[in-house]
Every structure is written in structure tokens, then in C-alpha cells.
Amino acid sequence: MVPLMGNVAQDDGSSSVTSSPLKSFSLMSLSQPALLPCAPWLRELKSDERGLCLIHLLLNCANHVAAGSLDRANAFLEQIALLAVPDGDAMQRIASHFTEALARRAIRMWPGLYHALDSARAVVLPLAEAAVARRHFLDLCPFLRLSYVVANQAIMEAMEGEKVVHIVDLNASDPTPWLALLQGLRARPEGPPHLKLTAVHEHRELLNHTAIRLSEEAERLDIPFQFNPVVSKLDNLDVESLRIKTGEALAITAVLQLHTLLATNDSADARKAAQRAPPAGITQQLSLGDYLDKDHGANGHSPSADSVLSPPFASTSPARIDSFLAALWGLSPKLMVVMEQESNHNSAALTERFVEALFYYAALFDCLDSTVPRQSVERLRLEKMLLGEEIKNIIACEGWERKERHEKLEQWARRLNAAGFAAVPLGYYALLQASRLLQGFGCDGYKVREEGGGRLMMCWQDRPLFSVSAWRC
Questions:
Q1: Which of 135, 307, 339, 344 would be a feasible disulfide site paired with 303, CB 3.0-4.6 Å?
Q2: Is 473 in contact with 250 (CB distance < 8 Å)?
Q3: Sequence-separated (6 or more) residues with CB below 8 Å from residue 204
Q4: Beta strands in 289-374 (DSSP E)
Q5: CA 214/CA 199 separation, integer angstroms
Q6: DSSP annotation of 386
Q7: CB crowding 29-44: b at 16 or more within 10 Å, else e
Q8: CA torsion, points 119, 120, 123, 125, in degrees to nearest 10?
């Protein structure tokens, strides 16, 4: 298991809870850019020692990359390469992804070299690979299934007695969530409604697959069903294409999508961050203990470095997300269900979001290490094609290219309230069904807890990783 989470990985793949290497490491000062001798004995370190070493090297490397001290960053990357491997223990695998992200970030300082190398690789994953990675995430972790269970229960309760139900799925990449909803609607005492599903996705092939699968199931259950495919990226979506009609009871689902609309041309923010950065060759003072204290408060949900050090919410809300939420509000939905990553990866300062991302993805890799065998090909694909791509986008990209701008629920709540939405408490049955699903998953580390206002946090151990909330006009 991952040293960041306080569980020491054993070399045979088993794990045991011991004193936290991170707790010890948090007492260290990262102000000294100490390099370790590049010697073969580095490879012989025990798992917890290696984890501490990798954390130290990664954070110092991130400081040097942010400061533009590429010679020093290169030296740290060389040392990390002795320890980090994509098929090792969890910390080694995490380090391999963060190392690639830092290297890509560093090479951007030579635009000609960067673009020459970038044009030689596939920047966008092929459709089949992206779909496979998301399917592995659905199968290997309970988080997506939990969100689907909660969303379906909330929709069933909101649409009780409605004769025509229209659902807009803003990321219809898989028919799985709606198969269960069809069965739930079929069992209503008053009988099933006429169901219309508008599915938004940029790839027509996935929409066609979803349409066929759901149409077959609706016919089998004898449910009146209409499928409206909308081929579009979310940032280019025209709400008129959703075909909302008078008399329809509307529900909207946004699963891990809204944060992509936070992308903005933040070159001005980057210039301000550069002005705050120390001169090249001088490592920024960075206490991991400070970040740890902020990140793991009494309830595990205290403000992070981003929320403490970054400007207030109002100055970081780009007009695009505001206008999009306003457009959705104008459709007068009875319900909107939102799932987002529960972490702040949208700071203008590279070092701030690097530390946030390191803690966050360490928890994700930790839960995978606890429930999926080390030799699993599916897990390696998930880590490389989904989680690894997210890490690279968070660390290596800026401006419009940086789409993975995750923010916490408290920030989304302010934004949704400003757009005219009010929170809808997720009911007792939603929490009950989510708890039952976790019991069936067979791992005590996964937890779901209710926050104030009836919103749910999906956690690994005590760390929230995803939030699910419901809203109405």
C-alpha cells in the first residue's frame, strides 16, 4: 500500500498498517535541495524507505521545475528514474507518472523541442483505449457505480408520478447506469413513464452502442423509450440540441464533467505565479507537514493549500462555466446530479497543485493496491490510460490544454448557488443503497459518508475522493 496513506507496502505485495512514513517525512524540511548519490544501493531500499525517498525527490524536483532550474530538476529526475517503475509497488507507479508529467512540463520551456516530440506521439488516446480505461475504472473501483446508484435513486424519487421523464446525460459513454434505472422505472407502482434520454458525447460510436443497448432493454421491459444522441464536446454544447419540450420532467446528470469547463486562458495567472516563484536554482520553501495539516483536518475535509493560498472563489470562476450553468438553469430541471473529484487541482501555482495531486492520486493508487492484484493487466491499463493521463494534464499543461481542473464540493456549491440552483438532500435510501454496494465490494477501506445538506462523500479510508450532490432550480 502507498506510504503516503500510512500503510507500508511489502515487497511481496501484501500490506500491513504500521507507523506512517509520511508522518515522519512531514517533519522534514524540503528547503534543502539535497541530492542523493546515484548508486545501485538505491534500488535495494525497503518499500517504506523507497517511498519516503521518492516523495522527497519528487517534491524537490517539482520545486525546481516551477522555478525554471532545469539543471537541478534534471538531476532529480535522474535519481527518481532509479526508483520509479510503472509496474512496481504503488509509490513506484505513482512516481513514474508524476516523473513523466514533470519531464513534459520542463521540456515545454523549449517550445520547438516540445512540439517536435509532441507531434510524434498520440496526444489523444484512441477511442477504444479511452473507453477501455473508463470501463476498468467502473469495474475495479466502486466510485462510478456508487454515483450511478445514488443518481438513479434521486431521479426515481424526484420523478415519482411523472408520466414523461427526460434525462440529459452530459457524458453518455456507457449504458450501465441507465440499465438499472430502466428496471427501477418498470417497477413503479404507477407503471413506467415515457422515458426520453438525451446522451451527450463527442464520439458517435459510443452513442450508437449506448442507443442499441438501452433500446433493446427498454423493449424487453416494455417501457416507452426515446434516445436522442448529441455528438458534441461539452464546451461546444448547444442547449437547443437537447430538445427539451414543455411537459417533460427534466433531470440532468454531470459525472466528472463540469470541471473541464473551468479551463481558461490563464497566461496572466501563470505570469503572476512566475513573479512569485524564487529565482532559478533556489528551491522554494515547502513544508509537506503544512500541506498535510491542511489536507487532513479533524474531519478530513479541511481547506487545502489551494483554498488557503489561492485567490477567493469569485476570481477563479471563468465565464464559460457560469454561462453553462445558467443555460442549464434556464431549462428548469427538477433535478441535477453532479459528481466531481474532491480535490483542488486548479491552483495557478504548480507546486500547490503538485502536492494536492500527489496526495489525491496516492489515495487512488492505494485503494487499487488493496483490492486488485499487482499483476492485473486491467489495473495497469487504468493507471496508465486514465489516472496517468489526468496526472500529466494537471502537472504538464496550462491554459486551454489543462482540462483536469478539479475543485472541491464547497467551491462547486458556491458556483451552483450563484447560478440559481439550490441543494437537494440525497435521501436515506440513496445512502443505504450506496452502503450496501460497498458491503458487496468486499473491502473495508471504501466508505461513503453524508456531509451537511445531504451530500455524499465517497472515501478511501477517511479521505474523500469524490463527491455526489443533487440540485434543483
A1: 307
A2: no
A3: 229, 231
A4: 335-341
A5: 11
A6: I
A7: ebeebeeeeeeeebee
A8: 150
Contact residues for 473 (Cβ-Cβ < 8 A; gap 6+): 329, 332, 333, 420, 421, 422
Instruction: Please state the rounded mean pLDDT for residues 100-104.
Output: 94
Return the closest-CA partner of residue 56 out of 273, 283, 276: 283
Q: What are phi and psi of 285, to 5 degrees?
A: -65, 120
Q: Is 38 helix (H, G, I), strand (E, B) or coil?
A: coil
Sign of CA dihedral 387, 214, 146, 158: positive
Q: What is the per-residue pLDDT across 202-222, written as a single tens digit (0 to 9) for each?
A: 999 999 999 999 999 999 999
C-alpha distances in Å from residue 88, one per residue of 82, 92, 136, 185, 256: 12, 5, 19, 46, 28
25 Cα distance to chain centroid: 26
Phi, psi of 465 (to 5 degrees): -115, -35
Q: For residue 384, give Cα distances in angstroms to 123, 202, 392.
A: 13, 22, 10
Task: Report the C-alpha gap between 403 and 252 in whole angstroms.
Answer: 21
- DSSP at 96: H
Q: Please give the span between the terminal C-alpha atoms of the chain, in angstroms, as a whole number.
A: 43
Comparing CA positions, the residue from 8, 144, 129 lying closest to residue 389 is 129
Q: What is the pLDDT of residues 118-148, one digit of tens each?
A: 665 545 556 677 788 888 999 999 999 999 9
DSSP labels, 150-213: HHHHHHHHHTTT-SEEEEEETT---SHHHHHHHHHHHT-TT---EEEEEEEES-HHHHHHHHHH
Residue 176's closest CA among 205, 135, 143, 228? 135
Q: Which of 164, 151, 220, 216 shows the shortest CA–CA distance to 192? A: 164
On whether the CB atoms of residues 63 and 286 are closer than 8 A, the answer is yes
- What is the grid cell recorded at 4? 503516503
d(CA 190, CA 192): 7
